[in-house]
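From the thread on structure requests for the teaching lab: each student submitted one protein with a one-line request. Submission from student K.M.:

"Model EamA/RhaT family transporter from Pseudomonas monteilii, tokens only."
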Amino acid sequence: MTLGLLAAIAATFSWSLLYIFPGLVGDYSLFDLAVVSYAFAGLGSLLVLFAYRSEVRQLRLNDWACAALLGFLGYIGYFFLITTAVLAAGPVIPPVMMGSVPIVLAIAGNMRSASVPWRAIAGPLLVAALGISLVNLSVFDASRAAVVLPTASLLLGLFASLLAIAFWTGFGLLNESALARRPSMSPMLWSAMLIFMCSVEMLAFIPVGLHLKLSHFASHPSGLAGTQALIVCGLIQGLGATLAGAWAWSIATRRLPLALSGQLIASGTIYATTMGLLINQRWPSPMEALGTALLFVGVVWAIHAFYRKQTRLQTHGEASRVRI
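Reply posted by the TA:
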């Protein structure tokens, strides 16, 4: 379980970088960053697939189809839904709604596997949910809140946000099942398959992004000049946050119940908030500080609840062997 916890922490830390890099690439858009990062992630996954070439030869079509589906649900489709939500409903409502993903995933995971009694995780879930709400609600600004968007646009943004929550919840549940059906497959190989298929899907979605005018590359006044930050951030995001993050999450998924690993995603909010404050060189607001503290308490409380159950199971197993 300890290795699974470390892997989940590493995965959520790497994913928290996704909240930082968009502010470091200058005039380039989030879509430009995604294209560059998936280009590097695709190249990295190809190297991993070559290293596992003997295992790759034994893969079946349904293995690749499953990886493609999961890549679409958890990465490409999720990315475009979030982008659509922000474009339609503004930059405030979608992030607030997406803050519920760890809680929804933890509840869905425990509903399926009943890995821990509900009374043991009800407290941690409520505390973490309150913390996530406070951190996300801190992005509201009175001046921006006064801007009224068309009702149809708001409804589209809300629908896209809800669909994004469903996508990531489905990804978490299906990814856990896929790894369980492939107990002998290396988490690194599985992650490389998933990210490689994501890179292929991103190639297919480039025309969609161009049609939606999500790219600033073509209209960038300096052309190819000034792309150093985009390339560096894309390299780190592609190989670190995307490929290595997927690998760490696969390890965590195999070693932890989804009810715990899902809630650990919330710790990414702590990392992202901390790094954001350091970059902006400011102290947290009272709401940010209280929300982050509550989120930390909820996550630690959840880990303690799962460790306590594991200890009881080990003690019960040892007692049974003694009686035998």
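TA comment: Confidence is low (pLDDT under 50) at residues 142-146. The chain has one domain: 2-310.
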